[in-house]
Automatic annotation (TrEMBL):
Its main location: cytoplasm. Methylated by PrmC. Methylation increases the termination efficiency of RF2. Residues 52-115 form a coiled coil. Keywords: Coiled coil, Cytoplasm, Methylation, Protein biosynthesis. This is Peptide chain release factor 2. It holds the Pfam family RF-1. GO terms for cellular component: cytoplasm. Peptide chain release factor 2 directs the termination of translation in response to the peptide chain termination codons UGA and UAA. NCBIfam families: prfB. Belongs to the prokaryotic/mitochondrial release factor family. It comes from the Bacteria. It is found in: Cytoplasm. It comes from Acidipropionibacterium acidipropionici.
């Protein structure tokens, strides 16, 4: 690429980063960091461990965001210097190094630009994800487990901590459902575009006649409830059932009634947790899931009320992605039309391009 073209690209990246800085406001973040550092330095901080964890987590997230912006700004300045060297001395090595760095900067700035589109009320929160097998019998249960692994691998790629709260195994293969929390800033805003029905088309490994099978799995994404949400659930509104934790078998299967199922009587919402060792821990985890579902129900009702005032409602849900393994290989998002042919990579957690396209599509829908 000619030096003039490289310089034009650098100028465009500089402009994009300036716009991102305007949205993210690093100076305001520096001020909040200073206030949080005072809290962290307080000797009684850990008297309230849950509050302390919130403070330290917020501080770490802000420091990471500011550091990322500063690094990108510094790298843009450095690549400008490289281009000057290349122009003045005809240094081919500097030009090649600059071209590689520009490509890397474009990828990282594009990803950061997507983050600026996450401005919803709960977008900054951690994500509570539930995957359920739907139509398709044993193939659907197997597909649900494939999706579970896909999201866990995605989180692992980003070094996000995941806490699995509940897994309900199907009788023959796969899972009926699974619920987990992704502990990362903006996990909800990021993963919320994954909500909907996912469809798999393949030659069924469970069909002895080798026929093609279509199966479905549903993904639900909720923001994790925080203390400030004040989701009060009177004990009288709850039915608590305990049961044996289930599993695929072996020595790890719990033989005590430690698993907990909560039924919210006014709404009929049912949640369960069985991955902790004690009944008390499972009940606490199940309560967090129930609170998140009630929070989302209230949000959905408010959104439905707003949509009723418009000519058309919100249609983000329903079938949103198709995974075809036969007669050809293709994963395609039915909302954004983003598609890839490497299905193995997708099922191994390489879904960032789908998520980014979904976030941009959602913002376009909101702006209409």
């Amino acid at each position: 690429m000619a030096l003039a073209d490289l310089q034009q690209t650098v100028d465009e990246l500089d402009h994009s980063l300036s716009e991102i800085e305007t949205v993210l406001d690093p100076e305001a973040k520096h001020r909040e960091i200073a206030e949080l550092e005072k809290e962290v330095a307080a000797p009684d901080l850990w008297d309230d461990q849950e509050h302390a964890q919130q403070v330290t987590s917020r501080l770490s997230a802000l420091q990471s965001q500011v550091e990322k912006l500063e690094q990108l700004r510094s790298r843009i300045e450095d690549v400008g210097v490289l281009l000057e060297f290349a122009g003045e001395g005809g240094d081919a090595d500097s030009a090649a190094e600059a071209e590689g760095e520009i490509s890397s900067l474009r990828t990282e700035i594009d990803a950061l630009e997507v983050r600026t589109l996450l401005s919803g009320k709960y977008d900054e929160r951690e994500a509570l994800v539930t995957i359920r097998s739907e139509a398709g019998g044993v193939d659907a249960a197997d597909f649900a487990e494939m999706l579970l692994r896909m999201y866990l691998r995605w989180a692992e790629r980003h070094q996000y901590k995941v806490e699995v709260l509940d897994t309900s195994y199907a009788e023959e293969a796969g899972i009926k459902s699974a619920t987990f929390i992704v502990h990362a800033p903006f996990a909800y805003g990021t993963l919320s575009v994954e909500q909907g029905t996912h469809r798999l088309v393949r030659i069924s490994p469970f069909d002895n006649q080798g026929r093609r099978q279509t199966s479905f799995a549903g993904v639900e994404v909720l923001p994790v409830v925080e203390e400030t949400d004040h989701v009060d659930i009177p004990e009288a509104d709850l039915r608590v059932d305990v049961f044996h934790a289930s599993g695929p078998g072996g020595q790890g299967v719990n033989t005590t009634d430690s698993a907990v199922r909560l039924t919210h009587l006014p709404t009929g919402i049912v949640v369960s947790c069985q991955n902790e060792r004690s009944q008390i821990q499972n009940k606490a985890a199940a309560l967090r899931v129930l609170q998140a579902k009630l929070l989302e129900k209230a949000r959905a009702e408010q959104e439905a009320e707003m949509n009723s005032l418009k000519s058309e409602g919100n249609s983000w849900g329903a079938q949103m992605r198709s995974y075809v393994l036969h007669p050809y290989q293709m994963v395609k998002d039915l909302r954004t039309n983003h598609e890839v042919g490497n299905t193995d990579a997708v099922f191994d957690g390489d879904i960032d391009a789908f998520i980014d396209a979904g976030i941009r599509w959602r913002r376009g829908q909101q702006d209409q």
